[in-house]
Design goal:
The structure is a homodimer of 206-residue chains. Chain A is mainly α. Chain A has helices at 17-33, 40-47, 51-57, 61-85, 90-107, 109-116, 118-126, 128-132, 139-148, 157-173, 184-197. The first copy, chain A, binds a DNA duplex (30 and 30 nucleotides) through residues 3, 5, 18, 36, 39-41, 49-53, 55-56, 59-61.
DNA sequence: AAATATACAAAAAACGATTATTGTTTAATT
DNA sequence: AATTAAACAATAATCGTTTTTTGTATATTT
């Protein structure tokens, strides 16, 4: 009632060392056993802390799991953002994102989770919230590409962001949708065509 | 050993009235109870036939379920194909496909299945085989659009098909990916831009 | 002020015994 | 020649019970 520092659930701060410990332990457990077989007691044991502390920072198990994945995604976005800084064009950036994303799917927490609970992973992938968090990621890069003239300034940023997101998601989910786009060069060439001209002209330099 | 008419599993002919009866009963059961709670005995009872007949035409339960969904998809593709015949442009066709696809997801067998077994539906949606069957659907329309000049003849048919499929799948799966594309006009305008110009110029008539 | 330890009822998971279903086979029926 | 009916072992689902886990509360420790 008199608490001021009450952060019930919204926006956990990853800087809090206790939160970090909880998430570390939680991620470790999920990585090893999957979500279903991970109990709050086990997380507490692994993180050498009390169950009470977990419930202080995360209201319930679902929040904890969500917290683990949100942090992973945040880390992924930060890491990717850094990589993109070094790349010149929007197409390069998108290509890199897809390659990065695929790698994460193969090697990250999703890969191990997919082995024990593929349905859960499938559900996460189809949840629009999973992508909505990344929507704020692209607009700066879109604007930059408009300034350099790589893409038209007439297309509004939201629309361009939408397309780029759809392509990224589609390419990570389905490396092959008729045409095999598993190698970086093939992927880049495809994205170059689609982003810059769609299916309209200028496939070759005309 | 001496059987000539042996069609073990590959390509069931929907014309065979027994096969149709089995599939009808199977679909009815899946629609009502979901896959998990549908037993071969129940399908037999509903279709007023013997379990043996089912096992003659479909090797196992998985094959039967697959058969039901394959037939549904074939019907959907045929129906959609017919609708597309009446439409002038590739963009119109793609728009119609998405609207049709969304309707099927809302009202068809998937909608009811999603209520009882959402994870199963999610798994089906992420299975590339689910889409591979539709790959042969688009190429004729692509070529037609190249002839009329709607899209460039320089882009090869496989690539164009791939993009059209990706857009269709993405739009049905995620009506909103930053920009809301739930209404037909909004959807068509978006697809028009993406298909004809990508994010390159000519957003307005230049 | 936050973390811990403990206790507690309600909900969920694990368990073992029982029942139902699967997939195969075989003889009888259409 | 295909469909049915019946029997069968192997597998999977269900049920009622026991155990664990969850989420909350409270007193104690750091």
């Amino acid at each position: 009632m008199t608490s001021v520092t009450n952060n019930q659930f919204n926006s956990v701060d990853y800087d809090d060392p206790m939160v970090a410990r909880i998430l570390d332990a939680g991620e470790q457990c999920i990585h090893r056993f999957g979500i279903r077989r991970t109990s709050m007691g086990e997380v507490a044991r692994v993180g050498r802390l009390s169950r009470g502390s977990i419930y202080r920072h995360f209201g319930d198990k679902e929040s904890l799991v969500e917290g683990v994945f949100r942090r992973r995604q945040a880390l992924f976005l930060n890491r990717t953002e850094a990589e993109l800084e070094t790349l010149p064009t929007l197409v390069d950036k998108l290509t890199e994102s897809v390659v990065s994303g695929r790698k994460d799917m193969r090697e990250g927490i999703f890969a191990s989770l997919a082995e024990t609970e593929p349905e859960t992973v499938a559900m996460m992938f189809l949840d629009p919230r999973f992508y909505q968090r990344s929507v704020s990621f692209w607009p700066p890069h879109i604007r930059m590409a408009q300034v350099t003239g790589e893409i038209s300034a007439d297309v509004d940023v939201a629309t361009a962001t939408d397309l780029v997101m759809r392509l990224a998601v589609s390419m990570v989910m389905f490396p092959d949708m008729g045409v095999t786009l598993k190698t970086r060069p093939a992927l880049k060439q495809y994205l170059q065509q689609v982003i810059c001209h769609g299916l309209g002209g200028a496939a070759s330099s005309r």
